[in-house]
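Technical annex B. To support the medicinal chemistry partners, we prepared a structural model of the target in complex with flavin-adenine dinucleotide, based solely on the information shown next.
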Amino acid sequence: SKLFSANQNHQKIFSPPPPPQQQQQDSNPHAAFDTLDLDGHFSFQNTAHASRDFGNRFFFRPAAVLHPKSVSDIASTVKHVYEMGPLSGLTVAARGHGHSLQGQSQADGGIVVNMESLTRRPSQGHLRGGGGGRYVDVSGGELWIDVLKETLKQGLAPKSWTDYLHLTVGGTLSNGGISGQAFRHGPQINNVQQLEVVTGKGEVVTCSEKQNAELFFSVLGGLGQFGIITRARISLEAAPDMVRWIRVLYSDFSKFSTDQEHLISLDESFDYIEGFVIINRTGLLNNWRSSFHPKDPVQASQFVSDGKTLYCLEVAKYYNSHHDDAETVDMQIQGLLSKLHFITSTLFVSEVSYLGFLDRVHVAEMKLREQGLWEVPHPWLCLFIPGSKMDQFASQVFGSIVTDSSNGPILIYALNQSKWNNNIKEDVIYHVSFLASAVPSSTGKDGLDYILARNQRILDFSLGAGIGLKQYLPHYTTQEDWKGHFGSKWEVFLKRKLTYDPLAVLAPGHRIFKRQY
Ligand code: FAD
């Protein structure tokens, strides 16, 4: 193929594209691509969407966007870039749904692979029932919401989720994928049986715990550095159809965290355990994630946390309305709640379908989109905190460094370390996320600069106090910082990079490695 034939054309093709009017005048600027035998196609002009992401803060223009229709489209593209050798300087970034925060799925002057065009129609996915090994094979560009809808047709569903399902399988598996089920099932990367991957050399490799295991474990949570996930085999369980969704409030952090840790330690517990912090806010429902409609909405909206910090424990119990007896479900819930120490007048219960529960953040998204509040800068800060340091972190950060939660939700929930090896050697770790939205061009407390400075204060305090946190979805600009992030695992990470993507072609947006020239 002549895609990147070694003539001078590629220099022209992959320098930043000229403005659209100039491109139109050019008779056939990309002739070299026309001869490539692709099932899908390249686009050179409509690349603007690939230079944005949910974070709305980083904008790197690619030279081209590949819309693959087959795995071989991706493999042959990566292989060409690899075989062109160091001189091309080209990079390739897989783009899922573009919900990264800081340019992680962008490729400055390189090629962005629009993974969503690889999706098979969900009905063509392979769904296997029966026995303990139920799974579904899905494309890396599939949205989790579509995986859910498809598997539910057979009464099955994946076990571990993210809070928001309009993310792709390949995108979340490159990071981890956590939500309120992770205390039991581990993150999404713990619930994958097999992957098909295109490495940085353009090879298509199937891998699992038993086959090419090193690649398998490199790619899961590997920030896209070792390969592009083209197919994933996801473990399934019998799906419930209904959910009792419960929120209770605490004013005392240690009671809140003791209860969370108690709940995640039980064999028979809730099916979902999360929580959030309310600082200087009115009402339990005043939160962009809220599609929560408790039976007593008036009471729920009356809580005034002026000057105070409240902690909301959010739990859910799944059940099957055809098989499970409602009274038994209620008794189980009562049994669990009776051991907790929340403010007794603050028990709010909502009843929703399983699909409605899992897709809850999408409801909020639609509302925010209507108000033009979705496509704003999102200076999020997502952390993992060792359980032993959580009290210290909470007392310094909630109410002191962070004096209100009006910029966006602050999630906090405990996870069992045994379910996830993420470099913090403690039994319990907390996930804490400050999910702020900034008001464009504001210079006040709701502006980007203020929120970024606040995030930095949280990090500075944590460093000074020896909290030993790790960032989730991190963004660093130097390799030194990345070495610090990976700690003792850096050497292994580097060795694997040299094995699977030796020219550092893949996922340049993380800025961990420079394309080898
Ligand atoms: P992208 O942002 O497009 O890509 C992410 C990274 O993965 C990039 O480096 C990209 O190059 C790489 N990549 C993409 N596809 C592939 C592939 N097929 N193979 C290899 N690499 C690939 N995360 C959680 O864990 N839990 C949550 O509850 C959660 N909630 C969220 C809610 C919202 C509203 C948003 C915006 C994000 C949330 N996230 C959550 C974070 C989310 O998991 C990451 O932002 C993820 O990167 C988004 O997935 P995406 O499909 O849009 O991937």
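Notes passed to the chemistry partners:
Residues 423 and 489 are 8 Å apart (CA to CA).
Residues 448-464 form the longest helix (17 residues).
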